[in-house]
Design goal:
single chain; 145 residues; mainly alpha
Length: 145
């Protein structure tokens, strides 16, 4: 006695295989639909609990940096401004690290894990912008003294 289902088409010699039916060696090649890959995992995004501390620290650091520079609170203004700049830079770094963890990249730079090399012009532009911003901040704080 056989344990599996019986092939009734093979038992009846006068029947022919219709389209979509199984042949003795598997499905017909013409009837196979193309395979479609579907991503089952949800898209990785920054959640609000990841963004909230970064945004709060950036806002506090920016205010600490901006108010002493705008209103010049005597001799301690430069120290408070530099501390605010430090907090703002830390928040920016945390934000970049969190974005990188979920797969975001800077425009013009390759994705994490890819074999592509970054474009040197884009990297030079990012470095130049950072150098200019740091130079302006240090120059402004130095003028407070």
């Amino acid at each position: 006695m056989e344990a599996g289902p019986r092939d009734t088409d093979r038992d009846a010699p006068d029947t022919q295989h219709l389209a979509g039916r199984l042949s003795p060696d598997g499905p017909d090649e013409l009837d196979v639909a193309p395979e479609v890959e579907v991503e089952l995992r949800p898209a990785r995004r920054l959640r609000i609990w990841q963004l909230a501390p970064i945004v709060v620290l950036a806002a506090v650091g920016s205010l600490m940096f901006a108010f002493p520079l705008a209103f010049e609170f005597g001799g301690g203004g430069a120290v408070v401004a530099m501390l605010g700049l430090l907090i703002s830079c830390c928040a920016a770094g945390w934000g970049m690290m969190a974005a990188r963890r979920v797969g975001h990249t800077w425009p013009g730079l390759p994705a994490r894990g890819s074999s592509e090399r970054p474009d040197w012009r884009v990297a030079t532009l990012y470095v130049a912008v950072c150098v200019v911003l740091v130079a302006l901040a240090v120059w402004r704080v130095a003028r407070l003294r």
